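Subject: sequence -> structure tokens, single chain

Hey, anyone have a minute? Need the predicted structure for the following. Not urgent.
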Amino acid sequence: MDMVFQALAHEARRQILDIVRSKPGSSVGDVAREFDVTRFAIMKHLTVLEDAGLLIAEKAGRQKKLYFNAIPIQRIYDRWTDDYSSYWASQLTGIKYRVEEKVNKGAKK
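Reply:
Had a minute. Here:
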């Protein structure tokens, strides 16, 4: 999880993920053309993203095809939201039932 946060902490890596997410199967060259830095710098960022599991690289001859993997982000989301989601869902359901009960009582009068 720390690797995911570290990978997402850098603006260029977030931009790389946006590029790859919008154009699945992008090559390293495709991504590098979007930046005003060296291809080597982009490859370092790609390594960080791959190590964190956020990018999947598939060899296609001499090229790498890049794909976004949302699962690590989903795991982080699930870790902190599941308990809160169920709590608030039950709270909202309780409010809904109380409102309906009052409406039904008012309709009977």
